[in-house]
Amino acid sequence: MALVIPCPGGDSKIADKPATIALIAEKETRIGFYKNMGGERKLSKRPQGVLCDISGVMKNSINGVDVAIDKSVEAFKRLQDSGVPYVLCTNESCYSTAVLAQKLRKIGFNISADKIVSPVSAIIQVIKENNHRPYVLVNEKVRGEFDRFDQSDPDIVVVGDAIDDFTYENMNKTFKLLVGGERKFYCLGRSKYYLESGELKLEVGCFIAGLEYSSQVKAEVIGKPSPVFFNQAASLLGMSPRDLVMIGDDVDSDVGGAMRAGLQGILVKTGKYREKDASHPTVKPTLIADNLSHAIDVILNSKKGY
């Protein structure tokens, strides 16, 4: 008896042998179909380039020590060997891109700083181009990146993931600068939380929201989910956002931000991913993948035309 297998788009395939059934299932996996929000989904077009998050996708942090996520080193090497252009697109604002690259190399990823786009590198470019005098409330590990700039009588306010430096004194000083003059307010990312040592921890987003509420000054996001940030990453590859796919573990900042900027979005079930993310009320990922390895397989197989 023939078995009718329903397929995406309403078509059906007929298989009369177990081997045929297996081949059909294998081919559909290679094409990139994946159970997502009650139905089959796939990449809507073959991406010409890849943007990829770092934390929660390539690595996790356990007690302050970086650990590569299972199969991620091998998957990243497959992407590099394929020749598909890529950029690592992170909201990490606690380290410079040089340090990020060094940390990744230590756990097996062959990567250089010029392949990483971060809020820190982006805001430094903004400051340079506009001769700004910044007041910065950022992590102590990147504070030295701003020493080159005149910080007297600041004309802009920059807030990143300062962690332990989010004291009342520092927050109040930042608030006073915002309400005391016509200063532009920049935030380095706007994520809600991150994963460390298996626990979710507050990130910069809630502190930005508090400063906005009290000062009535809206922050401009330098980092995900800002479309400008994704456009900057796309420009580094010399491509249009619509020709790219973003791989991330944050349904809002990574996937939602990317899709609003015109990219396809792959949500991986690692890092900060939670089951409720699959039924997000507004963000509908192009694809949900088990991990980076699965996501890279889908992308590379779609490039081959399967």
Describe the structure.
The protein is built from nine helices and 18 strands. The protein has 306 residues and is an alpha/beta fold. It has a six-stranded parallel beta sheet. Helix 2 runs parallel beside helix 9 and helix 5 packs across helix 6. The protein is globular, with a radius of gyration of 21 Å.
Shape: globular
Strand order of the largest sheet: 9-8-5-16-17-18
- State the share of residues found in helices, binned by percent: 25-40%
- Total strand segments: 18
Structural class: alpha/beta
Distance between the termini: 28 Å
The residue ranges in which pLDDT falls below 50 over 5 or more consecutive positions are: 1-40
The tally of helices reads 9
N-to-C series of helices and strands: EEHEEEEEHEHEHEEHEEEHEHEHEEH
Mean pLDDT: 87
Largest sheet: 6 strands, parallel
Rg to the nearest angstrom?
21 Å
Proportion of strand residues: 15-25%
Short description:
By secondary structure, the protein is an alpha/beta fold.
Topology:
Blueprint: E1 3-6, E2 12-15, H1 18-31, E3 34-36, E4 39-41, E5 49-52, E6 59-62, E7 65-68, H2 72-82, E8 86-89, H3 97-106, E9 116-117, H4 119-130, E10 134-137, E11 156-159, H5 168-179, E12 184-187, E13 193-196, E14 199-202, H6 205-215, E15 220-221, H7 227-237, E16 244-248, H8 251-260, E17 264-268, E18 287-289, H9 292-304
Parallel strand pairs: 5-8, 5-16, 8-9, 10-11, 11-12, 12-15, 16-17, 17-18
Antiparallel strand pairs: 1-2, 3-4, 6-7, 13-14
Helix pairs in contact: 2-9, 5-6
